Amino acid sequence: MPEADDQSNNSPSAHDFPQPPTTAAANPSTQQQHLHNNDSTNAAAAIDESLMLEKGAPIPPRKFYRQKRYWIVCSIITTIIVVVVVLLALFVFYPMIAQFLMNQSGIEVGDAQITFHPPKDNLQKRGGVDATSITPAADLNSTFFMSMASDLTNTGPFPAALHFHNPINVYYNDTLLGKMTLPDSNIALGKGHIDAVTPFEIANTTFFALFAKEMLAVDEFKWRLKGKLDITALTRTATVDLDKEITIAGKFIPQRGS
């Protein structure tokens, strides 16, 4: 009998064998029920949200850049900035802009003639100097007449009126040669034209005699014009400095005229 008891005690029981897992994956009906519960919860939440909106619950605020008031404010600020920039350009920066345009512009002399008798037409009166007031009896060593056709280049995109503060000083090799007058002119689309028929007052007769010898011997010579002029554009006027080098063809004999 003791042996029978030992055998009964040593026999395996149901608890000694591994049990199958009891998860939701092992039970499809349980998983479907869980998904159904989630759908029911989401639907209930959506219904609650709709009910809250119907009862006057606060609506989430719209993004600021989608609001009409935002664009109205931006338009007003942009308009103010544009007006301020334009006013600054006209009243503060315009003189600097005008001087910059004058510095980068050029004067190309296409034709130049010298005569010791006043021309019969196209006479100029600039700075109190009248070409008709200088007669042939005047001192030819101190005064002659010059006819010069010039093109203005690279003057900028804006149309403008030019008024020179005559007389304009003329330098040759950094030495004052004399004074001349230039007529008013207009520029537009980056170019302009000057037709000058002007008396030339010699500042230094000795130096001018040396220049005259070189003028007849070289193919071209350079003058530097210095003075001031007014530039009027966009209803604004600025006084700028004139400092331009011009090139004139040489080897021409002054015309004595009759």
Automatic annotation (TrEMBL):
<keyword id="KW-0472">Membrane</keyword>
<keyword id="KW-0812">Transmembrane</keyword>
<dbReference type="InterPro" id="IPR046368">
    <property type="entry name" value="Tag1"/>
</dbReference>
<keyword id="KW-1133">Transmembrane helix</keyword>
<feature type="region of interest" description="Disordered">
    <location>
        <begin position="1"/>
        <end position="37"/>
    </location>
</feature>
<protein>
    <submittedName>
        <fullName>Uncharacterized protein</fullName>
    </submittedName>
</protein>
<dbReference type="Pfam" id="PF12505">
    <property type="entry name" value="DUF3712"/>
</dbReference>
<feature type="compositionally biased region" description="Polar residues">
    <location>
        <begin position="22"/>
        <end position="37"/>
    </location>
</feature>
<feature type="transmembrane region" description="Helical">
    <location>
        <begin position="70"/>
        <end position="94"/>
    </location>
</feature>
<dbReference type="GO" id="GO:0000329">
    <property type="term" value="C:fungal-type vacuole membrane"/>
</dbReference>
<dbReference type="InterPro" id="IPR022185">
    <property type="entry name" value="DUF3712"/>
</dbReference>
